[in-house]
Amino acid sequence: MAILTFKYLRELQKSERDSSVLQKIDTGFYTACAKYFESSPAEGETTKPLMKSILETRERKIVTAALQSARGVGRPENLLPEEEEFFSKISDTLKTHRTLIENILSENKEKPEESLKDAVTEKISNAAASSKNVLKIRAILDIPSFVAEDMKSYGPITAGQIAELPKKAAEALLGAKMAERVE
Question: Cβ neighbours of residue 39 under 8 Å, at least 6 residues apart?
Answer without folding.
Answer: none
